[in-house]
Design brief:
five-stranded mixed beta sheet; 2 helices; alpha/beta
């Protein structure tokens, strides 16, 4: 099965916590069991930090797990390149899994990282 994961930030990012780790582990598990997995994400690693990674082509993490990091343009995980690539990745996939991240300061207000 061809699985596309779309997430604002991805492994090895540590600036966002649980969602990144959950999608990474799920993707590794699916790839280990023979599924082709692609992740479309940004290079975000926190509100103002970016990963030091390749952003102009896919990165192969395992034989069947590939990640396309796209350079983000603002403090949030906004990437025009990701939006341009999205239709072709959706066409490739049999299943698309979207993950969003929302942060709170504990009182229900948007937090800062």
């Amino acid at each position: 099965m061809r699985v596309l994961q779309v997430i604002p930030s991805f492994y090895p990012a540590q600036g966002y916590g649980g969602a990144v780790q959950s999608v990474y582990r799920l993707s590794c598990h699916l790839a280990k069991h023979g599924h082709d997995v692609k992740v479309l994400t940004t290079d975000a690693n926190g509100r103002r930090r970016s990963l030091d990674t390749i952003t102009d082509q896919e990165v192969q993490l395992t034989k069947t797990l590939h990640v396309r990091y796209c350079r983000r343009m603002l403090a949030e995980s906004v990437s025009p390149r990701l939006l341009r690539l999205l239709p072709a990745y959706i066409d490739w996939a049999e299943i698309v899994h979207l993950t969003a991240e929302r942060f709170s300061d504990g009182a229900g207000r948007p937090g800062r990282s």
